[in-house]
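Render this sequence as a predicted structure.
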Amino acid sequence: MKIDEVENNTVYLVKKCIKCGETIFLKYIRTEEYDGGFTKKPKFENPPEGWKYSTELGSILCPKCATEFEVLKNSFINNL
C-alpha cells in the first residue's frame, strides 16, 4: 500500500492494476478507530466502477483486466 500527498496536502492511496499497470488515486476520507481507539485504520474512497479486488491474485485489477481474468478463470474451471 502506497500513500502519497498530492495537491493541497490531500492524502491519496495509490492503487495499480497488477496486470497492465493502470493507476488510480483514492482520496483519504477519515481514520476509523476500533477497540476504543487502540486500533486505527485509514478509510479511503471506493475504487471507480469496474475495478475489482481479486482474492485469487491478492490484488486489484482494472476493468479490462478484471474481465479478461474472469473469462480465463471460467474457461479453466469449465475445462476441469
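Summary. The chain has a mean pLDDT of 87. The radius of gyration is 16 Å.
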